[in-house]
Prior knowledge:
The complex is a heterodimer. By secondary structure, chain A is an alpha/beta fold. Chain A has 18 helices and 22 strands. Chain A has helices spanning about 45-55, 80-85, 105-110, 120-135, 150-165, 180-195, 210-215, 235-245, 250-255, 305-315, 335-340, 350-355, 365-375, 385-395, 415-425, 445-460, 470-475, 500-510, and strands at about 10-15, 20-30, 35-40, 65-70, 75, 90, 115, 120, 170-175, 200-205, 215-220, 225-230, 275-280, 285-290, 295-300, 320-325, 330, 345-350, 430-435, 460-465, 480-485, 485-495. In chain A, the strands form 5 sheets. A 6-stranded mixed β-sheet of chain A has the order 6-9-10-3-11-12, with helices on both faces. In chain A, helix 13 (about 365-375) packs across helix 14. The two termini of chain A are about 50 Å apart. By secondary structure, chain B is mostly helical. The two termini of chain B are about 45 Å apart. At the A-B interface, helix 2 and strand 8 of A face helix 8, helix 9 and helix 10 of B. Chain B: InterPro entries: ABC_transp_permease. Chain B: This is Sugar ABC transporter permease YjfF. Chain B: Its main location: membrane. Chain B: It holds the Pfam family BPD_transp_2.
Amino acid sequence: MNAQAPVVEMTNISISFPGVKALDGVNFRMFPGEVHSLLGENGAGKSTLIKALTGVYAIDSGPADSGEILLAGNRVSFAGPAQAQNAGISTVYQEVNLLGNLSVAENIMLGREPRRFGGIDWRATRRRAVELLRGLHLDIDPGSLLGSHSLAVQQLVAIARAIDVNAKVLILDEPTSSLDADEVAELFRVIRELKAEGVAILFVSHFLDQVYEISDRLTVLRNGKLVGEYRTAEILRLDLVQKMIGKELAILDALERRIVEPGGGEDDEVPLLAATALGRKGSIAPVDLRVYTGEVVGLAGLLGSGRTELARILSGIDRPDSGELVIDGTPHRFRTPRSALARGVAYSSENRRAEGIVEDLTVRDNIVLALQADRGWFHPISRKRRDELAVSYIQALNIRPANPDAIVRNLSGGNQQKVLLARWLAVAPRLLILDEPTRGIDVGAKAEIQKLVVNLAENGMSVLFISAELEEVLRLSSRIAIMRDRRLVADIVNDDLTVDSLLAIIADGELTAVER
Amino acid sequence: MSIDTSSAPVDAGRRLLGRVSSAFTSPKYGPVLVTLVLLIAIFAIGGSRYRGFVSGPVILNLFVDNAYLIVLAVGMTFVILTGGIDLSVGAVLALSTMIAASLLQSGWSASVVIPLILVLTSVLGLLVGLMIHIFKIQPFIATLAAMFLARGLCYVISKDSISITDPVFVSLAQTRISFGGRMSITASVVIALLVVLVAFLVLHYSRLGRTVYAIGGGEQSGMLMGLPVARTKVLVYVISGFCSGLAGVLFTFYTLSGYSLTAVGTELDAIAAVVIGGTLLTGGYGFVLGSVLGVLVLGTIQTIITFEGTLSSWWTRIFIGGLLLVFIVLQKVLTARRR
């Protein structure tokens, strides 16, 4: 295969957004007739790399953006997705980026409909669409509205559209996340056919089984940097997961390992939170989980394994359709995050910017937000009390700048995360669910947040700590629950666990350790 | 065999019923079909209460009285299909009547004045579109600014009503194309229907038109599919500006005067007509023919109020208000079911 010249060669690609270096000197190449997987956790830079290749981000626009893209040996620079498409690079994006308000045929042909007498030739358009659909063995009415079909069908329609552009390179960004097993098999059949025709296919998925099944070669990114390019057949799953998740930095290793001994855990103690067969169709399989007062429970697993989904159910954002949740001995009825909060369960989202802080408000306003909402808007917190709260949390969490009037947008990621933590601490929850609280923040802030979690547990608060970084889960948790492919595969006491034993469970789902 | 033949008509009937019900609950066709049924129902009510309501002259007069509104609604349809809104059309209409009246008064020829107005209003639309696109300003605010600007310029031209005596305008206003009897239409009706025809062809048989629908369905998706989203978004405001200018010209044919205070609130009539005509305010679904139906519904309600004689004309507004509420709820229900 290496005898051939690569069809895509990206060299030294760097792309920055304000405050973030999304890609840092990444090299990437693809050969014709191969399926190439791009792997990495959230924020690794996968989407950015794809968008650089498909012309959504122009490489030479920003001062900090640089790099070179060769397509079939020629240097290219796309001013937009249309140009990339014309050059033979087609993309099927993660969320189906088609138009539900138009017909199936139109979604396939939009922008390049055959024309007759100066107008669109609808007959020819339909005929061409039917041909393409037939190639994918998809028997649907091309005149029907796209929005009336299932996501799986929409996905295949998106691929039909991509194929029609005479693609040399087909990019499939998380194409299987909404498909069931049969549909995935159908998709893989199509991928293999295209591969046989010499199309280079970039396959992005967080399902490792699928990566191993379909791809010939893979590239791993982490924190915007290239980790390496490997032949799929030559890399062990365990090694792969290790490369995706990465090693902690030395400074964190120096942190002493401080696990809070669980305050209880004996059979007679009533758990603070007890979930029994709690599940939600299409989200996670039924889960049993207990959290006792004053303990830190780690929730580990790869991206998309169901970590966040479980947290969202526990905190009342999504409703479960099976099982029950008992908080402090009494059953909890799920209505809203507000009702969960009333029972003392607070959730700090992994999506800090969209679901966490309010960027345009001050540090003070962000900190008192949840407390004020809890009290109701008819009982305003006095200015004096707000100042006290803000100042005390700024000191306690070492928020920089130490200015209650600073606009949160201008703070660094780590300080934004601390402001978010302060907001939830201000309502004094009994169980704090922290979803990726240390992602994308610098090492110093990371260590401070880890220390804080330990202190909170020592003072009797329970913490459900979700993180993709196994070292930090190991360092903080007294018990670790592991999710894999949307089910809870292990719930283990953290006494002699190591990163390797956790990796084994995450990669293979094997229960090598003793179950609690 | 005998069982088959006896059940066949039942099956066919059921299938037809299924088709009809799915058309009525589709977000694409549902609202338009409801509007059509509504229009027929209003005519039936009118016909049962008043003699001579369902007659050629009454129907044709609907078009004569509302030709300018049809043109406005066509332009508005383009804008709303992309998910935008244009609040400036009423004021721009008034401005074009003022420009026409004052230029004709100072001796300009109609053959210069009319193209000039169309160019000016298109350029105004272009500026609004560029403002929306380049500075990412909400269409609501950008067109609100254009509305005040245009209305203000009217007063700069003149505070008083200016009457038009230009022979071309007068003859266009008075010429009636007769179908025999008391049935006749004006040139404005022909122009308005031509605009509708062109708009229909553009929306359904050109890439520009399909891009308009694509933007309403999902701007981001359209962009990722490689469609000229930016250009099209600006262009719909040019089209709306052009239509406002043309509607202004038709309005002068109708009133033979220019007046600063004319057509206050007409932009809202146009929006109401488009919405009642089945175009979703969030964009993506709707037909220009639906907007024509919407104008006719408004016109017919007006006619009924006139026939009633004792009712204040404000009852038109009350009915339109109620209808709008019903239609917006209907749209929500139809689109929510599909999600």
